[in-house]
Design goal:
Blueprint (H helix, E strand, L loop, with lengths): L2 H9 L2 H24 L6 H31 L8 H5 L2 H13 L8 H24 L4 E6 L5 E3 L3 H37 L5 H18 L1 H18 L6 H20 L3 H4 L11
Antiparallel strand pairs: 1-2
Length: 278
């Protein structure tokens, strides 16, 4: 099949639209970053890049949610998901937050977690779909597979992308967890200074972050590390007793709030159909 025809066939799939959305998000983030480092936060191009990035994010997660809904419909599942079970899907959560950021004031830090995800999704799609379409794997007759079929020669670029994803995935997900934690404090600071709309945004993001804590071992690990460091600082002999008492009170309140808002209690545990954010 000619290359043009192969590319046309690939471009007609929903997954290609998903890939284009992630690619658009990455390019818009880079463009917005250039405006940010030159202190042109609210220039026409900066505003356009920022909003377009979240339009792309909403489109990509919307595609994943739609494909999941369509897969359940094709499987003939007559059982309708409850609203809570639907909200427990990480892709629905990120879709909702992309829409919230799209219509909220600019918070540059909010782009970064989506961008990190996009980098890995672009890399994975390029390795799994784009490269095999552009350069189909050649069959090697010199080395046969155990089933007697010719072995396919892997692409050096594809192998390099695979090594990159495998080597940096865990570190990048830890980075995303740290960014999402830092973003919560950034919104809290805006709320304390009574920035317009910041309290509503804080409530929405806190609900989102609570769900992330329930479902992401990376967020749990980041919170655990942060708590351990503060515990070590508070345990220092030079720390006033009042500060220790305040810290213990804060930990107790947060722990009680976390237990009371555990979504898995209401949806019967982790949903088997739930997908990792894509």
């Amino acid at each position: 099949m000619p290359l043009t025809q192969r590319l046309m066939y690939l471009a007609q799939t929903l997954q290609f639209g998903w890939f284009v959305g992630h690619l658009t998000l990455l390019f818009c983030t880079i463009r917005y970053g250039l405006s940010y480092i030159t202190f042109n936060f609210y220039s026409r191009w900066a505003r356009f890049s920022y909003r377009t990035a979240f339009v792309a994010a909403a489109a990509t997660y919307g595609i994943v949610v739609y494909k999941g809904f369509r897969a359940r419909a094709r499987a003939g599942s007559n059982k309708q998901q409850s609203p809570l079970a639907l909200l427990a899907d990480e892709n629905v959560q990120y879709l909702a937050m992309a829409l919230v950021w799209l219509f909220s004031r600019q918070v540059p830090l909010a782009l970064l977690p989506f961008t990190v995800y996009s980098i890995f999704h672009i890399a994975t799609y390029t390795r799994s779909n784009l490269l095999p379409t552009i350069q189909p794997a050649q069959q090697s007759t010199a080395q046969a597979s155990p089933g007697g079929r010719p072995a396919s020669k892997s692409s050096p670029l594809g192998d390099a992308i695979g090594r990159f994803v495998k080597e940096y995935y865990d570190a990048s997900m830890t980075l995303v967890a740290g960014l999402e934690i830092f973003l919560w404090f950034r919104i809290l600071l805006s709320a304390i200074t009574f920035t317009k709309g910041s309290w509503i945004l804080l409530i929405i993001y806190t609900v989102f972050f609570r769900a992330r804590y329930s479902q992401s071992s990376f967020v749990q690990g980041a919170i655990g590390q942060g708590t351990t460091r503060v515990d070590a600082l508070v345990a220092n002999q030079s720390t006033p007793p009042v500060a220790r008492q305040v810290w213990q009170t804060v930990k107790g309140v947060v722990r009680q709030a976390a237990d009371a808002t555990d979504i898995n209690r209401f949806v019967g545990g982790t949903q088997p159909g739930m997908k990792k954010a894509q």
